[in-house]
Write a structure and sequence with these properties.
This protein has 164 residues and is of the alpha+beta class. It contains five helices and eight strands, in the order αβαββαββαββαβ. 33% of the residues are buried. A four-stranded antiparallel sheet has the order 2-3-1-4, with helices on one face. It has a four-stranded antiparallel sheet with strand order 6-7-5-8.
Length: 164
């Protein structure tokens, strides 16, 4: 009987431990205006995050399903260096290259967002990102890999996917 009690106690502790929220920080997020901040907060809240903090380019939150929240954050067009969860792998960029590439799903709520995307991609080619859209086209003098474009975007605090 005593073994059964200890076994049930251990199972209860393990189950309770699985319900604890993970603390996540994402540094280097593009957050230039109230539109960015509101979008970040709405995205995180909608995915189940709590205790959300926005401090310049750093975002923090707690979540029981931290990985799901981080994936939703990246899917919404934001990016940064993640601690406390795994950074989502780039989707749909492997082997994709061309002199003209179209991307979608990027957060571009204002002119400063669009200017930041265009500046981040200037060393690679010319981007036509515009405010209040979610797509842009990059035109380069020579063929470029979509993975390189996505890396430059993520380094600037944005995420996107190759448009079909």
């Amino acid at each position: 009987m005593r073994r059964l009690g200890l076994g049930l106690g251990l199972v209860t502790l393990l189950a309770a431990g699985a319900a604890f929220a993970a603390d996540v920080k994402i540094a280097g997020v593009h957050n230039c205006c109230p539109g960015c901040a509101n979008g970040i907060r709405a995205t995180l809240e909608g995915a189940g995050a709590t205790n959300i903090t926005l401090n310049g380019r750093e975002v923090g939150f707690s979540a029981e399903e931290a990985q799901k929240v981080v994936q939703t954050f990246f899917d919404a067009g934001y990016a940064g260096k993640v601690t406390g969860a795994k950074t989502p792998e780039p989707q749909g960029v492997k082997g994709v290259k061309g002199a003209t590439l179209k991307f979608s799903g990027v957060h571009l709520c204002c002119g400063a967002c669009a200017n930041a995307v265009n500046a981040a991609l200037a060393p690679i080619g010319k981007s036509d990102a515009k405010a209040r859209t979610e797509t842009f086209t990059l035109t380069a003098a020579q063929e470029v890999e979509a993975a390189a474009v996505l890396k430059a975007l993520r380094d600037a605090g944005f995420n996107a996917r190759v448009a079909k």
